[in-house]
Amino acid sequence: MPVTGLRADNVKGMTFQETLTGRDIYVGENGVGKSARLQAFVFGIQGYLPSPFKKGLGDTFQIASGDAMSVSIETDEMFSFSRQIRRKTTNHKDGTKSYSYTSACSIFPDQGTKTNKDRERRISQAMGGFAVMFDLDEFMSMSDTKKREFVFSLSSPESYGWDRSRIYEELCESLGHAAPIEWNDKIPVAENISSLLEETSKKLSDARAVYKDKQKVKVEVIEMRQRATQEAVGDIAEIRGTLKSLREKRSEYDKEIAKAEEIKRQHDSLRDRISKLDKSRSTLDEGTLPDLGEAEKKVSDGNKGISMSEELAEDEEEKLDGYRSQLSETQEILSNTKEQLARIDQRQAIRDQINIISAKGCPLMGDQCESDLSAYKGSLEEKWQGVDDEVKILREKRDGIQADCKQIEEWAAASSKRLKNHKGCLKEWRKAVKGADKELVEVKNCHNARELDQLAVESEEELIQDVRSNLGAIVDTGMAVKAVAGIMDQISELEEKEKKAQEIKNVMANFDQANIAAAEAEEEVETLAKLRKALGSDGIQAEILKDVIGPLADTVNGLLSQVVPGEKYSVEFELYDMNGKDTFEIIWPRKIGRVSYNTLSGGQQILFGAALMIALILQADPPLKAMCIEAAELDAENFFSLLDALDEIAGGIDNILIATCNDKVIEKKDTVADKWEVVHLD
């Protein structure tokens, strides 16, 4: 089931889509996406990338850009699928970040698959999950041990009856007990063994470090034990018993000293109280009190002044109110008189009519009027005289009323001034009474305080008398203090002995613990070392290689024979050197003798490498037989030799993808165009 189409999103920062012919070469400088296409192909087929990446999603996600990566695969049998890995970032309160990864896949046609696990199983059934990622330059420079590990990682132990049960039984037999391994049924046997070897080697390294630390602790404890034995100070229980007795004795002395010091303190306190009492008596005898009667008289006089000022102010306010009322009534009469005067004062109008008659005659018809107006004029003059008399009377009345208003206003102003003076006096009297009240309170306080002081002195005299009658005599504590000092010296000496005795006891306990810990660490190292040996080149791995290597050599020789028809190849794999140590040497018997792989020409090494990879794929026999070859640094001659070899021996391989930097391939593109699709990336 060859792959015909490849699409990748966010792989090494690139998104691309390729149509695959089965024989595809990608040419270009570094960084244009050659390796990205090979890695995307392998990820699509296997679901992860092989070494140097591990099989965790986070390890494979290292080639992704952004938070998601996906690859889609199409085949020539109308079957297609895609894989995707997503990353979720979690920001923590301490500023750190953590990442989690999820994978998903889809297939077409889905054939009733419901879960992601079902789809993974369907892809594995259709494709096999075996795509060899082969770096020619790296393989040619590998040591024999690395070549051995590489060939083992691509071998198919399952084809020779090696499964989980058989391997577990072999390990248990080698170890003599149950093998502490964790098997992953999702990956091939060879990958399981390689993973177990890597994990066991790491655990063994950690266990050896722990064992080294435990041994160091054990040596230190032994040295401490030796020193402790030399510095033995006696039985710790006996020491603690003596300490208890001395501490009790010291406690009794401490109580006696404390009691004597308390009596002395009470005597000192009594002397202080007597001294203070004497000072209080002296103060009472010498002090003079302010006159209470005088202070009370000031308050009384002030209150009388307030009463007198309040009476004068009230009288004056009554007078002022009378003046204001009288003024209001008089102003109202004046206003009425002015209005009356304004109504009757028509003298100017009458005079104007008289003047007109005197000058012109009839005010309406003038000279044409023939009437006698002298009588009318006389009546107007009489009327004018009457109005004039009445106006003069009213004016005299008005002037009199205005004089009355002015007099009343003057009386009111004088009264208001006297009221203000009375209120000022009232304010001053109140201020004086307030000060006198305050002074009276202070005087009373002085008298009360004197009475309280007198009572306090009398009470203190009685108390002092009681204390003096009950107080014991002062005792000298000098001897007791010296005795306590001697006991403290003994206690200090015994505490130091107790400390050393406890250290010795701890050392003895630590010695047993250190021995046990060192023994357990040593046992862990031995178990892991046995497990690594049982898994590695002296154990399971070697047994599998023995089964695999013969048929593998036959397949390689058969493929090499196709390159040069008629020539028989007999390449051999040696797993052990002359001293019996494990190795992995590739021997090519020639007419000149047995030739090591490392002494072959570059072309011969390339030819063998290609044959070995194809043989490994054919042995695994997956539904999809594919290989990806990194040939970045191969020169033109060797590169075309590789193509010629693949043309001859890779007929059973469905897909071959090659990445190279050699631009000669572009120049000679036409020479290989009938068999290879050359894609120039820039």
From TrEMBL:
<feature type="coiled-coil region">
    <location>
        <begin position="236"/>
        <end position="280"/>
    </location>
</feature>
<keyword id="KW-0175">Coiled coil</keyword>
<feature type="region of interest" description="Disordered">
    <location>
        <begin position="281"/>
        <end position="316"/>
    </location>
</feature>
<dbReference type="InterPro" id="IPR027417">
    <property type="entry name" value="P-loop_NTPase"/>
</dbReference>
<protein>
    <recommendedName>
        <fullName>Rad50/SbcC-type AAA domain-containing protein</fullName>
    </recommendedName>
</protein>
<feature type="coiled-coil region">
    <location>
        <begin position="484"/>
        <end position="538"/>
    </location>
</feature>
